[in-house]
UniProtKB/TrEMBL annotation:
GO terms for cellular component: cytosol. PROSITE patterns: CNMP_BINDING_3, HTH_CRP_2. SUPFAM superfamilies: cAMP-binding domain-like (SSF51206), Winged helix' DNA-binding domain (SSF46785). Keywords: DNA-binding, Transcription, Transcription regulation. Pfam families: cNMP_binding (PF00027), HTH_Crp_2 (PF13545). The lineage of its organism: Bacteria, Pseudomonadati, Pseudomonadota, Betaproteobacteria, Nitrosomonadales. The keyword Flavoprotein does not apply. It comes from Denitratisoma oestradiolicum. PANTHER family: CRP FAMILY TRANSCRIPTIONAL REGULATORY PROTEIN, LISTERIOLYSIN REGULATORY PROTEIN. InterPro entries: cNMP-bd_dom (IPR000595), cNMP-bd_dom_sf (IPR018490), Env_Response_Regulators (IPR050397), HTH_CRP (IPR012318), RmlC-like_jellyroll (IPR014710), WH-like_DNA-bd_sf (IPR036388), WH_DNA-bd_sf (IPR036390). This is Crp/Fnr family transcriptional regulator.
């Protein structure tokens, strides 16, 4: 079995109030993150042991088989979860975007199930495992939130398997569905991934992925922007992608 990607050292952030520590009370993402239901008073102790990190492009948050050490809340950026086959071939099994969580298996498993790799620069908060377990015991609202996010992750995994990684749909249709999965919220921006990553997500060759993306670009369904952060995204014709994906018909109605 081929060895997974070598782990990259995670660079810690210097925060204004506490070096390397998260300030949950003033976080502008607090209402949508995992601990959104934890009260401000409870956070007085909670935030003192949550670490802030910046993971460089291609860096790993954790690797499959490593002992679980915590829950990782994504503040900015995107993370790909990779599973390696018995031959060492990588397969991207899920893409996790900002406001979501990776490493939730820490609560139930002694080791991580997948390798988590940063796509571009990623800012995360890491909640140490034992502290998180203690907080879950003390807060029924956090228990409910954890179950909700676990259910969401399961639904995304089922969608990934049924609509993207297999089935009878043509590669062109699955590509459109993948691009919609990679959409940045409700905007017309689509996160751009390498051809190798696209192939690993859909189980197709790099040549096939390149041909389909080139077709979408010629048709104007995708537009490449260059310079700064713009190069990380496609600008997309979302209705056109939805039609190609078989989600709507030519009139725009749900298929």
């Amino acid at each position: 079995m081929a060895a997974p990607r070598e782990r990259v050292i995670i660079k810690q952030v210097d925060l204004p109030q506490r070096k390397g520590r998260s300030d949950c009370k003033s976080c502008d993402l607090r209402d949508v993150m995992l601990c959104s239901d934890v009260t401000v008073d409870q956070l007085a102790d909670f935030h003192t042991w949550i670490d802030d990190f910046v993971v460089p492009p291609g860096g790993t948050l954790f690797q499959a088989g490593e002992p679980t050490d915590g829950i990782y809340c994504i503040r900015t950026g995107t993370v790909k979860l990779i599973k390696f086959s018995s031959t060492g071939a990588p397969r991207i099994v899920r893409i996790v975007k900002r406001w979501n969580v990776v490493g939730m298996e820490s609560v139930f498993s002694p080791t991580f199930e997948n390798t988590a790799v940063a796509v571009g620069e990623v800012a995360v908060c890491r909640i140490p495992l034992e502290n998180f377990r203690s907080m879950v015991v003390q807060n029924p609202s956090l228990q409910r939130r954890l179950l909700e996010m676990s259910h969401q992750a399961l639904r995304e995994a089922e969608t990934w398997l049924s609509e993207l990684a297999g089935g009878s749909a043509l590669a062109r249709e699955r590509m459109a569905r993948l691009l919609l999965q990679l959409r940045d919220g409700k905007t017309d921006r689509i996160h751009r991934f390498s051809l190798e990553d696209i192939g690993a997500m859909l189980g197709i060759s790099i040549e096939t992925a390149s041909r389909i993306l080139a077709e979408f670009t010629r048709q104007g369904t995708l537009v490449k922007r260059e310079g700064g952060l713009a190069r990380r995204y496609y600008q997309a014709d979302i209705p056109a992608l939805e039609r190609i994906a078989g989600l709507t018909d030519d009139s725009g109605e749900s298929a």
